[in-house]
Amino acid sequence: MTVPVLLAPPRRLIDATIDGEQVRVPEGTTVLEACAERGTEIPTLCHGDTLTPRNACRVCVVEVEGARTLAPACSRKLEPGMSVATDSERVRHSRKLVLELLGSSVDLSTTPKVAEWMERYEAEPDRFGPRAEAAALGVRDARRSGEHEPGDGSVAATVEQPAKIDNDLYVRDYSKCIMCYKCVDACGDQWQNTFAIGVAGRGFDARISTEHDVTLPDSACVYCGNCIEVCPTGALSFGTEFDMRQAGTWDEDKQTETTTICTYCGVGCNVTLHVQDNEIVKVTSPHDNPVTHGNLCIKGRFGFQHVQRRGGDGKGSGAGGDSA
Questions:
Q1: What's the predicted TM-score (pTM) here?
Q2: What are phi and psi of 175, to 5 degrees?
């Protein structure tokens, strides 16, 4: 029997203007998508190509003619006759301020392209003063709404704290968290439906947390690692990556990426192996794959050490010789 192929209904084309140039795009196209199609780069941190936009980081704002406020390009859809400016003085000023506020309070050292954006928009996070000392582990988690005390302006408040290492698979370094909610969405109703993490606290003390701030092994986490897949800043990372960064041996320029099929079951998930010095250092999944859409289970994402073990003492040697 022939199975009918279901095709999406065609979308009508609309005309709009971006930076003075007329564009024709399918109805429902966002400003960010239209700009990417025409080669105009718009900086963004919280946008995820597998998630519904949250409009959290506000780095991607653009100016829509006739609108009172700037609009987030990741979720604002183009409309017929709309005129958009992606690099106006107002837009540049807003992006500069957002980058300065983020840079003064969050460790953006492992956030891709942020240094380039800082230079482009002449952002100066240091103008808010020297960074405050990092909080001790657990101090921010223990705060309750209304307990935050405003500083005296001598230092810039930060979210810095020691990394949380309570399992063997991945590390939570919330000093790098910009509260983009992508991990919450990936763990929640948009993908995994585990709901192991959520947002606790209010205002500057808002943070990502497990229920009652229990450790990951005591939470509902199933270690799929899909939160790591969508994290834009490195606040969530493989234990192997975290250890190598601490040791100064992490080098993405030396890494190769090979996409293959996970061997654990018959679903057919695609996995991309990141290899450095003949050793698998982490595993991701292609976002455009129709099976996974970037998501994996604990076996697919973390169960790769067996290909790097040799005989003998059974402890493994990391590289695994010819089997890696």
A1: 0.86
A2: -65, -20
